[in-house]
Design a protein that fits this description.
447 residues, alpha/beta, TIM Barrel, 16 helices, 13 strands, binds beta-D-glucopyranose, hydrolase, glycosidase, Beta-glucosidase, carbohydrate metabolism, EC 3.2.1.21
Length: 447
């Protein structure tokens, strides 16, 4: 079977990673503006103050998207750019930037996919307890209302949260991401409850204000399990692991978040794992959180292998010595794409988009001025072919977004890792499409 008719080919970015203009035109501070100022937090103390300067180069960047030929562009709105204090006052100039971006995309026949939250939380709200504050779901709903009223006439695709796994885990457990405050599991669980309520209230607002919208969320599948040999036993084990978790990996598992966001309940393992630390959800709250979504996003980069040892025992996560890895050090595991999609679809039967897939590489500008990235092309081609296999096996996949359009600020890794299909020379802000850009251009034309 082939891609679905009208399959969406796209690419993605997020606000803090590309925009820059951190203090301009009335923008408020985000937790990332503050966190990156603490020396030692980020690789070589890089910050997103300027990033790809996309705020000032938006038209040039959209022209490049048009040259690429994508049908859709996924970007996120910076909450403190449109609401400097997180609640109350609205920053018209910030809204205007996104409104202009949307118009520019539509002028080029590119459909905007808006992520409401890709981690740049308003710092003023963090100072009030952030996602632990019982008012946080209402804060998020009011912010959704501002965005929906401003762009709802032109933007029909929304993603409420990007990877709730990552900003909770890295932000409040490992503390390698903003705001970098260590909380015990009980507090993080309370936070998860509020985030889930925020998601539910946001979906309700979107349905009310943009009745013809399509809405979903975008978890990461970092723990996507895949059977090295595709035997029944290994496949079943991979599915079981995918839909489960233990006390040390619950926060980053897709099972925890999918049960919460898609079914409106804490995963059945939670009561045993957390006892009285597990927050309660009333029936009303469950319905609010678990209201039907139009699609689910999946951000897939890598997965964990399930194999047999020489003596026939099941082994998790062992790859051959010297197995290929990306610039950031993640193993290259294309089969994870097939199995994550298949296992997700078999469990939830919800149409999905691959909202992120891509790799960082040690890209350089060659003597002839070009950027050759054969390993990225190979990575993308392998993942696309595994995705197609999942489609052939019945998964309803609506579209695919490469992460990322531009090299950008890779969170705690600063500018050290390059994920883009367009190279950014941060000294001059010159954009150089890499070979993978032209390869993708061809895929879009020919698939
Ligand atoms: C995030 C992106 C990030 C990418 C590569 C995803 O977890 O959504 O913001 O740049 O992975 O690390």
């Amino acid at each position: 079977m082939d891609w679905k008719k009208d399959f969406i080919w796209g690419t993605a970015t997020s606000s803090y990673q590309i925009e820059g203009a951190a203090y301009e035109d009335g923008k408020g501070l985000s937790v990332w503006d503050v966190f990156t100022k603490e020396s030692g937090r980020i690789y070589e103390d890089h910050t997103g103050e300027v990033a790809c300067d996309h705020y000032h180069r938006m038209k040039e960047d959209v022209a490049l998207l048009a040259e690429l030929g994508v049908g859709a562009y996924r970007f996120s709105v910076s909450w403190p750019r449109v609401m400097p204090h997180g609640t109350g006052e609205v920053n018209e100039k910030g809204l205007q930037f996104y409104s202009d971006l949307v118009d520019e995309l539509l002028r080029h026949h590119i459909t905007p996919y808006v992520t409401l939250f890709h981690w740049d939380f308003p710092n003023e709200l963090e100072m009030q307890g952030g996602w632990l504050n019982p008012s946080s779901p209402e804060w998020f709903a009011s912010y959704t209302e501002i965005v929906a009223n401003a762009f709802g006439d032109r933007v029909k695709y929304y993603i409420t949260f990007n990877e709730p796994q990552i900003f909770t885990w890295l932000g409040y457990d490992t503390c390698t991401h903003a705001p970098g405050i260590k909380y015990p599991a009980g507090r993080i669980l309370a936070m998860c409850r509020n985030i889930a309520l925020a998601h539910g209230m946001s979906v309700m607002k979107l349905r009310e204000l943009v009745p013809d919208c399509r809405v979903g969320y975008a978890p990461t599948c970092g723990n996507a399990y895949w059977p090295v040999e595709e035997t029944k036993i290994l496949a079943a084990k991979a599915k079981e692991l995918q839909n489960s978790f233990g006390s040390d990996d619950w926060i980053r598992s897709s099972a925890f978040w999918n049960e919460l966001f898609l079914k409106g309940r804490f995963h059945e393992k939670c009561r045993d794992l957390f006892g009285t630390d597990l927050p309660e959800l009333t029936d009303k709250e469950r319905l609010l959180i678990g209201q039907p979504l139009d699609f689910c996003g999946m951000n897939i980069y890598q997965g964990t292998s399930v194999s047999f040892s020489d003596t026939g025992e099941l082994v998790i996560g062992k790859l051959p010595v010297g197995h290929g890895k990306t610039g950031i050090g993640w193993p290259i595991t294309p089969k994870a794409m097939y199995w994550a999609v298949k296992n997700f679809y078999d469990t939830y039967h919800l149409p999905l988009y691959i909202t992120e897939n891509g790799m960082s590489a040690l890209d350089v500008i060659s003597l002839d001025g070009q950027v050759y990235d054969p390993c990225r092309i190979d990575y993308l081609a392998r993942h696309l072919s595994e995705l197609k296999r999942a489609v052939s096996d019945g998964a309803e996949v609506e579209g695919y977004f490469i992460w990322s359009f531009l090299d950008n600020f890779e969170w705690d890794k600063g500018y050290d890792d390059r994920f883009g299909i367009v190279y950014v020379d941060y000294e001059t802000q010159r954009r150089i499409p890499k070979d993978s850009f032209y390869w993708y251009q061809n895929v879009i034309k020919s698939e």
